[in-house]
Design a protein that fits this description.
Blueprint lengths: L17 E3 H11 L4 E4 L6 H9 L3 E4 L3 H15 L3 E5 L3 H16 L3 E7 L2 H5 L10 H5 L5 E4 L6 H13 L5 E7 L6 E3 H7 L14 H12 L4 E5 L1 H6 L2 H11 L3 E3 L19 H7 L2 E5 L27 E6 L13 E4 L2 H12 L8 H22 L8 H14 L4 E5 L2 H9 L8 E3 L9 H12 L3 E6 H5 L5 H6 L4 E7 L27 H7 L3 E5 L2 H14 L3 E6 L16 H6 L1
Length: about 575
């Protein structure tokens, strides 16, 4: 407990120890196992960052709150503890709000803590410094939102925020701390008693036995079963059980991008290389921590064998999810299995028993045949050595580097840079691939890199489109300041999607075109890191190997063909103009 006041004893008066809001916030976080804060200092939380660091918390200071927020969100995913983002009031809060919404949509446990103006001034709209009703703004975008007005309630506020962030379906939580809260003092002993160590913040939720039986009966009757693993399965850290379920049943599985590595992508049951075949052909699909949202075409349409854009393909779905509201969100869920993933997987394994019959050989053989053809086709493409490099020849190198360093963290964002990396680079261990998630947003890159390095202690490889890198590129200074082992590869084709568009009026560069020949590597050099400019696969390989060997912050400017890439990557159909052309 931080002691801030120790007045001299006068006569027979006993010495009184007091504490204040600063130390109560810090002590409450430490009591609950929080050891890192991501943020940006400023009014009114500058002293909180100083005192937190002095008290032993690691405070990672960024150049922009949005990037600190993304760091906190992915730290929550990787550790299953709420990632903490600390911001100043109003504009700083708004900068962090994007990441808070991102955490909520992606089910990442995160707490955005922001200083704010005093309630009595905000409510009367009297024009305080950075006046804003932050709680009201945060509520629609967060799983929960709380405000603490009195020092004696800090323990309750932080306990409620932690429990809300990690219980049930995880998400983003906002905690509003008005400026004058920090200077409030109270008796130190009473302060200690007011703090709460949260007990069992994310309790197990066991599935109903009849729900387990219903799910198993569907699987047993399937001729073409498929297991689909989402990032919720990766978050659950039920790796052993999930692998046992896949291998014991013999059912082919398809991992979503952040579930890659739960089992190695090279596993014989992995159907990633036959995705377009297995989704419409499967008759029973077991969803484990995956949602039938836009990333899975809402469970309908051509992707699933439907005869129209909104037509259901006829599959029967088993859905493992901790939220009962998720079932039937797009198509009928025939066997909802409500509970935490670890408990549901354990229950399924117990129910399988010894007499389980594996899927028909016709199904697994058909998948193996298509996998073999597609893998051979990909190998043929990767073997080419075009001049200049393209996405495939550059990512063929990345593929080899990741295979040689399977414990490295892989951060990935962009349009084509994201899509090609997902399909080309295999993952071998769980929770090593982190990317744009449900929203498919740009800008997560450098924040994720910082959090991945800090939380894992492992080397980080970031594969960035040149457009995506621009959203958070200034954070390379943060990487250098904390000397983090991050190797950034910017796939530079001079623009958004490609660098060949022109302004028909001849007045300005096209909106999608950047400065030709940009040297992103010089940005890293400016802050003391290593910058490398490469134009060939062999140069890229040497630079990546050296970056991982040295552990120094490195940015590799990998020049690729500016005609490489397609508009919007693999989601061109979401472009209104593209849809009109069909």
């Amino acid at each position: 407990m931080g002691i801030v006041n120790e007045p001299a004893v006068t006569g027979a008066a006993a010495e009184t120890e007091t504490t204040d809001g600063f130390h109560l916030v810090i002590d409450a976080l430490k009591l609950n196992g929080i050891d890192t804060i991501f943020g940006l200092p400023g009014i009114p939380i500058t002293d909180l960052t100083r005192k937190a660091q002095a008290a032993g918390l690691r405070v990672i200071a960024f150049r922009h709150e949005q990037n600190a927020g993304y760091a906190a969100s992915i730290a929550g995913f990787l550790t299953r503890k709420p990632g903490i983002c600390l911001t100043v009031s109003a504009p700083g809060f708004l900068n962090g709000l994007n990441a808070l919404a991102h955490a909520t949509v992606n089910c990442f446990p995160m707490i955005l803590i922001s200083g704010s103006s005093e309630r009595e001034i905000v409510d009367l709209q009297q024009g305080d410094y950075e006046e804003m009703d932050q709680l009201a703004i945060a509520k629609p975008l967060a799983k929960a939102a709380f405000r603490v007005l009195h020092a004696e309630d800090i323990g309750v506020g932080i306990a409620r925020a932690i429990r809300a962030a990690v219980s049930g379906r995880p998400g983003g939580v906002y905690l509003d701390l008005p400026a004058k809260l920090f200077s409030q003092s109270m008796d130190a002993a009473a302060g200690r008693d007011s703090l709460i160590q949260v007990v069992d913040p994310a309790p197990r939720q066991l599935p109903a036995p009849e729900a387990v039986r219903r799910a198993l009966d569907l699987l047993k009757g399937a001729k073409k079963p498929l297991i689909l693993l989402g990032k919720g399965a990766a978050y659950a850290q039920a790796d052993t059980g999930i692998r046992a379920l896949v291998e014991k049943t013999g059912i082919p599985y398809l991992p979503m991008s952040m579930a890659k590595g739960l089992l190695p992508d090279t596993h014989e049951q992995c159907a990633s290389a036959a995705r377009s075949f297995v989704l419409p052909e499967a008759d029973v699909v077991l969803l484990v921590g995956a949602r039938l949202n836009w990333l899975l075409s809402h469970g309908k349409g051509k992707t699933w064998g439907g005869k129209g854009p909104k037509a259901w393909g006829g599959q029967k779905f088993i859905q493992v999810d901790i939220s009962p509201q998720e079932a039937d969100s797009n198509v009928r869920i025939d066997a909802p299995l409500v509970g935490d993933i670890g408990s549901c997987v354990s229950a399924l394994l117990e129910g399988i028993g010894e007499g389980w019959t594996k899927p028909p050989a016709e199904w697994t053989a058909a998948i193996a045949e298509r996998k073999s053809k597609n893998i051979a086709k990909m190998a043929e493409t990767l073997a080419k050595d075009p001049v200049p490099m393209n996405f495939h020849s550059a990512l063929g190198v990345v593929r080899d580097i990741v295979k040689a360093n399977p414990d490295a963290m892989l951060v990935n964002e962009g349009a084509n840079a994201l899509d090609f990396t997902r399909s080309i680079v295999d993952m071998y261990q769980p929770r090593k691939r982190i990317d744009v998630g449900t929203w498919g947003i740009m800008g997560i890159g450098m924040g994720y890199c910082v959090a991945a390095a800090v939380t894992s202690g492992k080397p980080v490889i970031a594969i960035e489109g040149d457009s995506a890198f621009g959203f958070s590129g200034m954070e390379v200074e943060t990487l250098c300041r904390y000397d983090l082992p991050v190797c950034i590869v910017v796939l530079n084709n001079n623009g958004v999607y490609k660098g060949t568009d022109v302004d028909p009026t001849g007045r300005d560069p096209a909106p999608t075109v950047f400065v030709k020949g940009a040297r992103y590597d010089k940005l890293m050099e400016a802050f003391g890191g290593v910058g490398v400019h490469v134009t060939t696969p062999s140069e890229l390989r040497a630079a990546m190997e050296e970056a991982i060997r040295s552990g120094r912050p490195t940015l590799i400017n990998a020049v690729i063909d500016e005609t490489a890439g397609t508009e919007s990557g693999r989601i061109t159909s979401l472009n209104p103009s593209a849809a009109k052309k069909k």
